[in-house]
Amino acid sequence: MAALAGEGKLVAILGDEDTVTGFLLAGVGHRTADKTNFLVVKGDTPVSAVEAAFNDFTTRDDIGIVANDIRHLLKSYTKTIPTVLEMPSKDQPYDPQQDYIMQRVSGMLNAET
After folding, report:
1. What b/e string do you get for 14-29 counting C-beta neighbours within 10 Å, with b at 16 or more?
2. 40 and 20 in contact (C-beta within 8 Å)?
3. What is the pLDDT of residue 113?
4. pLDDT, tens digit, 9 for 90 and up, residues 71-83
5. How far is C-alpha 77 from the chain's CA centre?
């Protein structure tokens, strides 16, 4: 079980097989009889299944960070914990104009000046 230091929180992962496997090999995987902290998203995975996993992960008390790729849900997500990180896809080039976190940071930095 991989927990955030002192908090007892898990990292949840929604991603392609390579990304999820990397996180699992790093030791962040956690499985109980009725749930896990990861979802492998393939080309044929229904968006509804990814949305359901995201909604589940962001409402669980044992999750501290969610790593995923569901832009339409990320834009309306405002909670600090669990923190949501969007990782660029290995199949597409990184576009900072599409990165909602960078947009929020840029907006905060511009507001301070």
Report:
1. bbbeebbeebbeeebb
2. yes
3. 55
4. 677 777 777 787 7
5. 11
Q: Classify strands 63-68 and 10-15 as parallel, antiparallel or unpaired.
A: parallel
In sequence order, the β-bridge partners of residue 63 are 10
Q: What is the dihedral of CA 14, 15, 21, 22, to 10 degrees?
A: -100
**Entry pTM:** 0.66
Nearest to 12 by CA among 63, 86, 80: 63
Q: Residues 10, 64: contact at Cβ < 8 Å?
A: yes
**Helix or strand holding residue 84 (H, E):** strand 83-86
Whether the CB-CB separation of 13 and 28 falls below 8 Å is answered with yes
pLDDT tens string 20-55: 999 899 998 999 899 999 999 898 999 899 889 989
Contact 13, 69 (CB under 8 A): no
